[in-house]
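F.,

This is the one I mentioned.
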């Protein structure tokens, strides 16, 4: 496949399908399959799901469209997009924040992706023995405590580097087009299997029946952080990707499709995990290790479990790869656009820094427990700071920027392809970007930090 470029020489995704496959590829990842179940599990299940949906629709979609407008409009990277629309230097800070957040996320994300890869390879060679919940737990602890995760994190990061170095069309687009649809199919198979578990009813009740008394400020902040994380928002990732969209890509439609598919995968993951949690005697609030301890029990009880396990972790690995690619692309494109690095040098720099941070994160969970801040391992600190602080902050800045700084006529042009088709929701969109999103994000922030 040839690397496609538009008139200005910038790479573009080859088709409308590719625009969706790549944005969905970025959105769907560990956030849906690993992070969503444990966040939902520790924040009361159904209550969390409702808050999550509310934020994804009311805040996620408008901010996603705002990022698309900035990216496709400026055809520039996360930093360049702010500079393209405003001369005020202050906005550059939003660009720096984006790069910083992307490095922090790469750090812990690659570690979890490394676990995925390790499970995949070990299941392939029949090395996973999960005869009981205790055995699963023990094996997981052994796996994350030693040096192995450091090695797997590095292997994962090298895969990331390989795809990125091949460029936008050949690397990112091709991987997403083929493997994302396959992931959906395999998740469906596991959902069907879930129906047959004894804990199905209890799991479903936990996930879908909201107990509103469980909603507190940490549920709200958790759900907001999850919506941002899952939709890849607030750190310029979607600005960068949409700068590769063609002029014909419909921004509103693409945003809605991305949100719908992304949420569908999160819910499917919940449908797979929670019945198993209750069937096999786990606690839904086990935290980040939940999925890695529960899933092997499912495989163990399936016919040809090793094959399923290999396949599942392989696809999860690919889903994390398409997401990590998008995270690293933020920094890479800043380096090529702003600092005129060659593609190769930029990829090497971005991946190099990413590898160092992720090695530190992997070490903080095992051999070097002293890599902690206030007793919390670096791994968890980076997750918290990036997802619950930097991303909502970045999303707030982006929403204010598009709502207040960019001319409304320009927004209309971007949304309607210069009037080629109608757009009835321009007014509500601008209203949400100006008021609802920034105010809601601010309130949730202040609430969870105890200031109001
Ligand atoms: N959305 C991805 C997931 O759910 C993670 C991700 C990719 C991301 N790109 C991002 C998170 C940019 C924040 C910002 O796994």
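My design for it:
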């Amino acid at each position: 496949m040839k690397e496609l470029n538009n008139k200005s020489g910038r790479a573009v995704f080859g088709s409308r399908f590719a625009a969706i496959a790549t944005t969905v590829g970025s959105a769907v990842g560990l956030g849906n399959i690993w992070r969503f179940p444990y966040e939902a599990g520790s924040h009361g299940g159904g209550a969390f799901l409702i808050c999550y949906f509310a934020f994804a629709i009311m805040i996620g979609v408008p901010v996603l469209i705002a990022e698309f407008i900035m990216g496709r409009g400026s055809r520039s990277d996360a930093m360049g997009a702010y500079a393209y629309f405003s001369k005020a230097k202050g906005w550059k800070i939003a660009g720096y924040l984006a790069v910083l957040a992307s490095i922090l996320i790469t750090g812990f994300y690659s570690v979890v992706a490394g676990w995925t890869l390790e499970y995949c390879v070990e299941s392939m060679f029949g090395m996973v023995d999960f005869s009981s919940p205790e055995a699963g737990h023990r094996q997981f602890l052994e796996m994350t405590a030693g040096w192995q995760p450091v090695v797997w994190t590095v292997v994962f990061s090298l895969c990331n580097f390989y795809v990125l170095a091949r460029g936008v069309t050949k690397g990112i687009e091709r991987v997403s087009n083929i493997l994302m649809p396959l992931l959906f199919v395999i998740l469906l198979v596991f959902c069907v299997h879930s129906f047959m578990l004894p804990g199905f009813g209890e799991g479903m009740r936990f996930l879908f029946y909201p107990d509103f008394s469980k909603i507190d400020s940490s549920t709200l902040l958790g759900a907001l952080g999850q919506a941002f994380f899952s939709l890849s928002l607030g750190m310029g990732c979607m600005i960068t990707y949409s700068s590769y969209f063609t002029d014909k890509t419909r921004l509103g439609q693409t945003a809605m499709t991305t949100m719908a598919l992304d949420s569908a995968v999160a819910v499917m993951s919940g449908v797979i995990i929670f019945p198993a949690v209750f069937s096999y005697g786990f606690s839904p609030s086990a935290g980040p290790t939940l999925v890695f301890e529960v899933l092997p029990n499912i495989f163990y009880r399936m016919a040809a479990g090793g094959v399923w396990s290999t396949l599942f972790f392989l696809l999860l690995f690919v889903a994390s790869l398409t997401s990590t690619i998008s995270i690293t692309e933020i920094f890479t494109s800043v380096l090529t656009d702003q600092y005129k690095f060659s593609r190769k040098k930029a990829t090497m720099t971005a991946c190099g820094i990413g590898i160092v941070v992720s090695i530190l994160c992997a070490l903080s969970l095992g051999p070097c427990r002293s890599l902690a801040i206030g007793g919390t391992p670096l791994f968890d600190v980076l997750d918290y700071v990036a997802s619950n602080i930097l991303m909502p902050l970045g999303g707030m800045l982006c929403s204010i920027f598009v709502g207040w700084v960019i001319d409304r006529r320009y927004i209309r042009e971007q949304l309607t392809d210069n009037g080629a088709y109608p757009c009835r929701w321009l007014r509500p969109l601008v209203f949400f970007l100006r008021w609802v999103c920034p105010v809601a994000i601010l309130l949730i922030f202040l609430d969870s930090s105890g200031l109001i």
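The chain has a mean pLDDT of 90.

Talk soon.
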